[in-house]
Write a structure and sequence with these properties.
The complex is a heterodimer of chains A (153) and B (824).
Chain A: E1 2-11, H1 15-22, H2 25-29, E2 35-40, E3 44-53, E4 56-70, E5 75-84, E6 89-102, E7 105-116, H3 119-124, H4 128-152
Antiparallel strand pairs in A: 1-7, 2-3, 3-4, 4-5, 5-6, 6-7
Chain B: H1 23-27, E1 43-49, E2 55-61, H2 63-67, E3 71-76, H3 77-80, E4 109-110, E5 116-122, H4 125-132, E6 136-141, H5 148-152, E7 166-173, H6 174-177, H7 183-188, E8 192-203, E9 212-216, E10 222-226, H8 231-242, E11 249-252, H9 268-280, E12 284-287, H10 290-296, E13 300-311, E14 317-329, E15 356-364, H11 378-396, H12 400-407, E16 416-417, E17 423-424, H13 429-440, H14 442-455, E18 459-469, H15 477-482, E19 491-497, E20 503-507, H16 516-528, E21 535-538, H17 556-583, E22 590-593, E23 596-599, E24 609-610, H18 611-620, E25 634-638, E26 647-657, E27 663-673, H19 680-699, E28 731-734, H20 752-769, H21 783-796
The chains are: A alpha+beta (153), B alpha+beta (824).
Amino acid sequence: MGMQLEHSFTVDASPEATWALLTDLESVGGCFPGATVTEADEQTFKGNVKVRLGPIAVTYQGEGRFLERDDAAHRAVIEGTGKGLRGLGNAGATVTMQLAPEGSGTRADVVTELSITGKPAQFGRGVMQTVSDKLLGQFVSCVESKLAGSAGG
Amino acid sequence: MTAVDETRAPSAEVGRDRRRKEDQHLITGRSRFTDNIVLPGMLHVAMVRRPYAHARITGIDASAAQESPGVVAVLTGDDVKDQQGSLPNAWPVTPEQKAPPHPAIAVDRVAFSGEVVAAVVARTAAAARDAAELVDVDYEELDPVVDLKAAAADEKLAHPDLGTNRSALWVFDSAEAGTGGDVEEAIRDAEVLVEREFRQQRLIPAFMEPRSVVVDPTGEQFTMWSATQVPHILRLMLALTLAVPESKIRVIAPDVGGGFGGKLQVTPEEVITFLVARRTGKPCKWTETRSESLLSGHHGRDQWQKLTLAARRDGTVTGLKVELTANMGAYLGLVTSGIPILGAFMFNAIYKFPSYRFECQNVFTNLTWTDAYRGAGRPEATFAIERMMDELATELGRDPIEVREQNWIKHEEFPFTTVAGLEYDSGNYEAATARAKELFGYDELRAEQARRRESGDRVQLGIGVSTFTEMCGLAPSRVLGSLSYGAGGWEHASVRMLPSGKVEVITGSSAHGQGHETAWSQIVADQLGVPFEDVEVLHGDTQISHKGLDTYGSRSLVVGGQAVIKAAQKVIDKARPLAAHVLEANVDDLEFAEGRFTVRGAGEGQEGIGLTDLALAVFAAHDLPDGMEPSLDADATYDPVNFSYPHGTHLCAMEVDTETGQSRMRAYVCVDDVGNVVNPLIVDGQVHGGLVQGIAQALWEEAVYDDQGTLVTGSFVDYTLPTSADTISYVTDRTVTPSTTNDLGAKGVGEAGTIASTPAVVNAVLDAVRQFGVTDIRMPMTPERVWRAIQEGRGSAPTPEAAQPHFEAGEPNQDTPETEGGQA
């Protein structure tokens, strides 16, 4: 099943500071609920993420990398693939992130092309958008607290 | 329900609305379904199913599963590839038919989502399921073939080794067969030509009891209990597939909770459980979850149907051409390939088409395989032709019943040989239609429809017609032979006269909820003149009922019931010399009635001798005529001389809310002619249940896959099976034209409701919204689809002002109770 998820959020920090955090994969990875980054360098990362989609709880183990990264334009495309443990099928995502100044802060537009197979696709279809909205909300508050922390320090 | 004027002797059992004798144990918790069976030392099996529609297996790591608590063994395709054989397809429809091998456990490639890649055996069902999740399988994903039309065009391959997705092309042409003219000629000369393409969506049988199998390898024979419709076929096929002597296999179908064709199969899970039991030496059980059932039990329907109907301007039909593309799914199951072919003889239906051509292209995709589902090929045919007759009526601007009547076979024309080469033995379409119209209030509803149309009511009324027939009672063996089916269509029965006067009837028809025990008891009670309660019907165990071809295709009563009658008649014949001996009379002077032999001419009040008394005399065997064997028991194997052709007229009124697309059934009337009726209560049950399944296809059910071949309607949340809350009370009635091909004069009823009802509902919804330029709506006709069709139809036609009363300028709040909400 392929689907596209769109999210936008604003944070009270400059585009530069936001960009620096969002492209620090190890640091930002910890902000994603259920995610653990086990290895990361400038271009790639490895880790796992545990998601509950309606009746299905699935842990994806995988890796990702930057397909595009434009530090000047604050635009990045990240590709990730994961194998669902317990025979639950694979997931793949291509995330396009674009930052732009908005007022005193930064607006981020994130488009995720998601492709999943197996039981999560079968049973989680109806809740995908809701779950991703909720996860993003938690992600954004984590990012905001990190930015606030770094600004303060 | 309305009473039916059937005449019967006051003492006769046949025709009585006997309560079903088998229901008592079912509703008081004494049922014994396969999953209820518990054997000492029994192990449990769970299947590891692949999540992809098409992938190569690159590695399986079962170590974690093997070490999991309670696990006894993990079997992969590699472990069983030399023993599992290939699952059987009993119906190679053409000599050239192509099919991939069909392993029970996939070995190196998986071809549909849900296919088994490993089996885990453990001491408890929960341990087996937990460990199944630990089997780590690596796949290399391949491009799945999901879309049926793309598959037919061979754009990509479901089975690369096969080189094509096209399994077989099956053709019937009336000119070639000598049963009619050349359809191309009819199309060329047509004054009216109706060309339409319809989609038969994929459905899931969704029987109540999930599939379950237990295999006990500890006796001299392997004993398999299975939730199957076909214990006899299963036994033979297991023997052939696994190279085990048939005599070493006993199959038992205990209480089976419905099948609808979905249990007419030899399943991978039956083979796997057998192999696992043989390997472990322990009894093994597998019971599926509902999501496994929806995913991996075979599906039904799934066709594209292209039809061309030629007619004269006066409405007389002159030719019909049918081009089907039928989705086999990933494999050929037991009769997968033959299912659409069963429709080949039914598209012409009750109409006198002088020319006819049927072509069916069977196509592989990477989806769950299809096979029999209630009606099997015939609902598809009936849907298409009944839609086409409405299209023709629309084209001509005439009443749909009138156009049908102009073309159907008149009652005085029976027996009638059709353009497809079948001989319909009896029927009276006029009578059924007249009765249905009367019960429905056809003219009144048409008047109401006109009023609503005129007033631009938000809720529009549509009336749908379906005047169906079908061929059932599968089937004359020589006809099956001519269609390359791998078996015959006979049925077996035995009648055993017990010394105490009780009677045991053994039938090869394996009931799974139909009420055979009751109906067979009624038949035998009448035949032998014994009380209904004294007849015990035994079935569903190959060691008791050693011979049979089981239950499907509305065959039980007209084939299996007839076999019972033949066996009972043989019992009477065998008793006759003994009766003559006891009564000291000439055999030729004996009469048998109501369970007693009497001597013709010996006067009223003579005692004669009862059949059950003779049974005791035979048991003692003290004084038998010279040379008589001490037994009255008899067997019969009956091969039907023809199919059975029930028919009927179904009328449906649908109210469609034109603003929301929501439709509501207003009335449903069906008048079925199923010949003579053994038990009207059972017949009504079959009709009501059948109607719901057919209506569900029209309105609610569809198996939906995403573009990667994942079933997204994999639970009853998404696969919207109706409940009684979704349905209305149906008005059912019958007309009776006895069949001339069996002693009962009965015709099959198991599938009639399903076959007839789908087009009646679809025609009704379309009839309500055609005025907006709508010509077709795909099934299931969800509110969204209906709404979209209305919007699109209106887009291409000028918007009738009266249909939009809400928005007329300067007249706010104009809705009145008369125009709002439908009912005036």
